[in-house]
Design a protein that fits this description.
- Helix content is 62%, strand content 0%.
- It folds into two domains: 4-24 and 147-209, Orthogonal Bundle (Endonuclease Iii, domain 2); 31-140, Hypothetical protein, domain 2 (Endonuclease III, domain 1), CATH 1.10.340.30.
- The chain is globular.
- It has helices at residues 4-20, 31-40, 46-58, 64-69, 72-79, 85-103, 107-111, 115-123, 130-140, 150-158, 168-178, 183-199.
- With 218 residues, it is an all-alpha fold.
- The longest helix has 19 residues, at 85-103.
- The structure holds a DNA duplex (13 and 12 nucleotides).
DNA sequence: GACCAGGCACATC
DNA sequence: GATGTGCATGGT
């Protein structure tokens, strides 16, 4: 038995997919690159994160062992373009310490942990909050965990489907209860929301170009 | 030059 | 428990 909100959430997925097509996220060649990107993109434009990732790759630091052993100053210099470079270096190091102390630096072992427990463990790492944890689980681990972000709040509150200040977990549960348990859909839906947010539904929205039903701004 | 970007931790009340 | 603040670079 699906609520009206669930049906809207399903309809909006169809609309966005038809409008934008598949987004093929996450941009990144390896699981480890996805994890690093998830931390670096916190409150930061992906454009800037790309430069940081390229720097890390060029310096040979984009593997668990290399990043774990890298000097703090070297990491800072690579990720400077992504902003918050001091805090983000700490956050990367916190994750590496967790990965090596608990899983010997082995991502296969990390992602063999059941999703719920994995999420709790990631949230215990200083610097990994709910969105970053869910991004890592979904896009690096390929496991079911819907990602909520600022765009999701903005777009779906304007649609009258959620309260703008609803807790993260409530929004996440609404999406997960509304959608089939399908990695491809979780993957594409969040990516499509970001696409809509970046292109159209910004703080200054271009509502004339929005494929969604009329919202509270129109 | 102001404003924004695919958050999070921590201080303070 | 709610609210405020620091963190930093680069594009519009």
């Amino acid at each position: 038995m699906k609520s009206a909100k669930s049906l809207q959430i399903q309809d909006i997925y169809e609309t966005l997919y038809d409008h934008f097509g598949p987004q093929n996220w996450w941009p990144g060649d390896t699981r480890f690159e996805v994890i690093v990107g998830a931390i670096l993109t916190q409150n930061t434009a992906w454009q800037n994160v790309k430069k940081a990732i390229e720097n890390l790759k060029r310096e040979g630091l984009l593997t668990p062992g290399a990043l774990h052993n890298a000097a703090v100053e070297d990491v800072q210099e690579c990720i400077r373009p992504a902003g918050y470079f001091r805090v983000k270096t700490k956050r990367l190091k916190h994750f590496m310490n967790f990965l090596f102390e608990k899983y010997s630096g082995d991502l296969d072992r990390l992602f063999s942990v059941p999703t719920q427990l994995l999420r709790e463990e990631l949230l215990n790492v200083n610097g990994i909050g709910e969105e970053t944890a869910d991004s890592i689980i979904l896009y690096a681990g390929g496991k079911l965990s819907f990602v909520i972000d600022a765009y999701t709040r903005r777009i779906f509150s304007r649609q009258g489907i959620i309260e703008p200040d609803a807790p993260y977990g409530r929004i996440k549960k609404l999406f997960e209860d509304s959608l089939p348990e399908d990695i491809g859909i979780y993957n594409e839906y969040h990516a499509l929301i970001v696409r809509l947010g970046k292109d159209i539904c910004k703080t200054k929205p271009l509502c004339s170009k929005c494929p969604l039903p009329p919202c509270s701004l129109e």
